[in-house]
Design brief:
Blueprint lengths: L1 H42 L3 H18 L8 E3 L4 H11 L1 H25 L2 H6 L2 H13 L2 H8 L13 H21 L8 H15 L6 H5 L15 H7 L4 H18 L4 H23 L4 E3 L1 H10 L5 H14 L2 H7 L4 H25 L7 H16 L2 E4 L2 E4 H15 L8
Antiparallel strand pairs: 1-2, 3-4
Helix pairs in contact: 1-2, 1-3, 1-9, 1-14, 1-15, 2-13, 2-15, 3-4, 4-11, 4-13, 6-17, 6-18, 6-19, 7-17, 8-9, 8-17, 9-17, 12-13, 12-14, 18-19
C-alpha cells in the first residue's frame, strides 16, 4: 500500500511539474506575442502563419541544439524594411524564396564558424561594418512610422484618419510603450509593445474606427494562409546582404542567454549549432510563408527574470504558438488593429533598431579619429537614408543591400592607420 502511495505521490509531483512547465511556456509566448505578430502585420504577411512558423522554428532549433538552449525563435524586426520593399516589388512568394536562401546563408555561416572559429566574423564583419547597417535599417523606416502615426498609409500617399484624431491614438500608444519599457518592473517590463497595442486599441474602440465584421465572419478553426516560395534571382540578390545584421545579432543573443543561465552556449552546443538552428528555422518559416526567425531578447529577459532555465519550457511555448495559429478568429482580430496604433509603436521600435547599431559602435569603442572609420560610417549612412541606387545591367541594387556591400568593401579596401585628423 505504501508503495502505491509513493507512486501516486510521484505521479502527482510529475503532473504538477508538467503543468508548471506548460504554464511558464505559455507565459513566455505571451511575452513574445506583441513583437511576434507586429512584424507580419506591418509587412502584409499572415500573423497566424507567423505564429505557426515561430513554433515550428523553435522546435527545429531545439532539435539541432539537442534542446540545450532556453530560447524562443520568432519574427525578426531587422527584416521589416527589406520584406516591405521586396513584397511590394516582387510579391510575397518571391520574397519567401529570397528569405529561404537567407536561411541557407546562415547555414553557411555556421559551417565557417565550425571550421574557422568566430574570428573570421570580426575580420569581415566588425562593428564599423554592422553598426551603420543596423542604424540604416532603423532610420530608413522612420518615414513609414511617422506617416502611419499621422493616420496615413505607410508610403504617405493617402490619408486614412484625420491627423489630430490619429495623433490622439498613436501618441498614447507610443507613450505607454515608453513608460512600460522605462518604469515598470517585473514581467510587465518585458511587454512594452503589447501594452502599447492594448492602449492604442482601446482608444481606437472609443473613437469607433475598428470594424469587427471580419472577426464575426471568421471561423474558430482555420488553417493559416500558407504561401509557397518562388525563387526570383533579383529578390535573392537584394535580400542576401541583409543576412549579415541578424547573424551578428544572433551571436549577441546567445551571449546574453549564456550570461543569464551561467552556461557557455558558445562552446556547448556551440555557436555553429545555434546559428545552424536559426538558419534552418528561417528557411522552414519561409517555405510556409512566414517571416524569418530570430532569437527573442524579450524571452531572454523573461528567462532572466523567472530563472526558468529549462529548455523544455520553450517546447511548450512553441506548441502553444502552433495551436493558436489555427484559431481563425485570433488572426481576424489581429488584423483589426489599426495602422495608426502600429505607427505609434513603430516610432519607438525603429529608433531602437537604430540605437542598437549605434550601441554596438560605442560598446566596441570604435575609434572615429581613424579616417577609415568615419568614411565607412558616413558613406553607409548617406547611401542608406538618402536612397542611393546603382543600376548594373538592368538590375538595381539599393537600400540596405547596397549599404552592406559598400561597408564590407570599404572595410577591406581602406588602410588601417593610426593617423589622426
Amino acid at each position: 500500500m505504501k508503495k502505491n502511495h509513493n507512486v501516486d505521490h510521484q505521479l502527482d509531483h510529475h503532473n504538477q511539474s508538467l503543468f508548471k512547465e506548460v504554464l511558464t511556456g505559455t507565459q513566455m509566448l505571451f511575452v513574445a506575442f506583441g513583437a511576434l505578430v507586429l512584424m507580419p502585420l506591418l509587412t502584409g504577411l499572415d500573423p497566424n502563419v507567423a505564429l505557426c512558423t515561430a513554433g515550428i522554428g523553435t522546435l527545429l532549433f531545439q532539435l539541432v541544439t539537442k534542446r540545450q538552449v532556453p530560447v524562443f525563435l520568432a519574427s525578426s524586426f531587422v527584416f521589416i524594411a527589406p520584406v516591405m520593399y521586396s513584397t511590394q516589388t516582387w510579391g510575397i512568394p518571391a520574397t519567401m524564396g529570397a528569405l529561404a536562401v537567407v536561411g541557407v546563408v546562415y547555414v553557411g555561416f555556421s559551417g565557417l564558424i565550425k571550421v574557422r572559429g568566430v574570428g573570421f566574423i570580426s575580420k569581415y564583419l566588425p562593428p564599423i561594418v554592422t553598426g551603420p547597417i543596423i542604424m540604416v535599417i532603423g532610420l530608413s523606416l522612420a518615414p513609414v512610422a511617422v506617416h502611419m502615426a499621422l493616420g496615413r498609409t505607410g508610403d504617405g500617399s493617402s490619408q486614412l484618419i484625420e491627423p489630430s484624431l490619429a495623433l490622439g491614438i498613436s501618441l498614447p500608444a507610443l507613450l505607454t510603450t515608453l513608460l512600460v519599457s522605462a518604469f515598470s518592473k517585473g514581467f510587465m517590463r518585458l511587454m512594452p509593445i503589447l501594452s502599447g497595442i492594448v492602449v492604442g486599441y482601446v482608444l481606437s474602440l472609443y473613437h469607433g474606427i475598428i470594424d469587427f465584421a471580419p472577426v464575426q465572419n471568421a471561423a474558430w478553426f482555420a488553417v493559416p494562409k500558407f504561401t509557397a516560395p518562388e525563387f526570383n534571382w533579383q529578390a535573392i540578390i537584394y535580400m542576401l546582404p541583409i543576412a549579415i545584421a541578424p547573424a551578428i545579432e544572433h551571436i549577441g543573443d546567445i551571449l546574453a542567454i549564456s550570461s543569464a543561465t551561467g552556461k557557455d552556449y558558445i562552446k556547448k552546443p556551440g555557436l555553429h549549432r545555434t546559428l545552424l538552428g536559426d538558419g534552418i528555422a528561417t528557411t522552414a518559416a519561409s517555405m510556409l510563408g512566414g517571416p524569418p526567425n530570430t532569437t527573442y531578447s524579450e524571452v531572454t529577459g523573461a528567462v532572466m527574470l523567472t530563472k526558468a532555465f529549462n529548455p523544455r519550457i520553450m517546447t511548450w511555448a512553441a506548441c502553444t504558438a502552433i495551436i493558436m495559429a489555427f484559431v481563425g478568429k485570433l488572426g481576424a482580430l489581429l488584423h483589426t488593429i489599426p495602422g495608426v496604433v502600429m505607427g505609434g509603436i513603430m516610432m519607438l521600435l525603429f529608433g531602437l533598431i537604430a540605437s542598437v547599431g549605434l550601441g554596438s559602435l560605442v560598446k566596441a569603442k570604435v575609434d572615429f579619429d581613424q579616417p577609415r572609420n568615419f568614411i565607412i560610417f558616413a558613406v553607409v549612412l548617406v547611401f542608406g537614408i538618402g536612397g542611393m541606387a546603382l543600376n548594373l545591367g538592368g538590375f538595381s541594387i539599393q537600400g540596405i543591400s547596397l549599404c552592406a556591400l559598400v561597408a564590407i568593401g570599404l572595410n577591406l579596401l581602406l588602410p588601417k592607420a593610426d593617423t589622426k585628423v
